[in-house]
Amino acid sequence: MDNTSDGSTVTIVQGSTKTKAGITSYWRSDGIFVIKVADATRPTADVLRDTLINFDQEGWEQQRHNLSLVDIRGIFPTPYATQRVMEASDKTPPDLRESQAILVDRTALFQLVRMLIGKLTPKSREVTHIFFAEAEAIHWLYQRRDALGA
């Protein structure tokens, strides 16, 4: 459970947690979809790609603002994992409202992730931001939700 800036409590939506390969994903009660990445193996990269594509497709079909937090702390992206994420970016519907916060460690990895984001589609670059602290990432997602609607 987390507390929001207004003091309300945020929980994991019961029954929403899924784990496959090195990916654990779940919905928070505030409407943020969380993806935690445990490693950069090929099976994990494949599941991450599929998870991102499915999330985007469902969001587009429901005409919702996709708010997501992708936690890659402790992970060093391999060329294969990078390719799979770029494939997911290429499949994002162009008119999908989305905001994606990427949570990274404060290491050289930050520079690499920033460079990789630069290789995404222009729309994906615009809606994706990197953070070192989860609270800052969540705050930015709330700001985006307030500005663009749910």
Please specify the SSE layout and strand pairing:
Elements lengths: L1 E2 L5 E2 L7 E3 L2 E5 L5 E5 L4 H21 L2 E7 L7 H12 L6 E7 L4 H10 L4 H6 E4 L2 H15 L2
Parallel strand pairs: 5-6, 6-7, 7-8
Antiparallel strand pairs: 1-2, 3-4, 4-5
In the CATH hierarchy, what is the architecture at level 2? Answer: 2-Layer Sandwich
Low-confidence stretches: none
The average pLDDT value, as a whole number, equals 87
Rg from Cα: 14 Å
Short description:
It contains five helices and eight strands. The chain is an alpha/beta fold and 150 residues long. It has a single domain, classed as STAS domain (Transcription Regulator spoIIAA, 2-Layer Sandwich), CATH 3.30.750.24.
Q: Key terms for this structure?
A:
globular; six-stranded mixed β-sheet; Transcription Regulator spoIIAA
Polypeptide structure, described:
The protein has a single domain, classed as Transcription Regulator spoIIAA, CATH 3.30.750. It is an alpha/beta fold and 150 residues long. A hairpin with a 5-residue loop joins strand 4 and strand 5 (33-37). The model has no long low-confidence stretch (mean pLDDT 87). The protein has helices at 42-62, 79-90, 108-117, 122-127, 134-148; strands at 2-3, 9-10, 18-20, 23-27, 33-37, 65-71, 97-103, 128-131. A six-stranded mixed beta sheet has the order 3-4-5-6-7-8, with helices on both faces. The chain has a two-stranded antiparallel sheet with strand order 1-2.
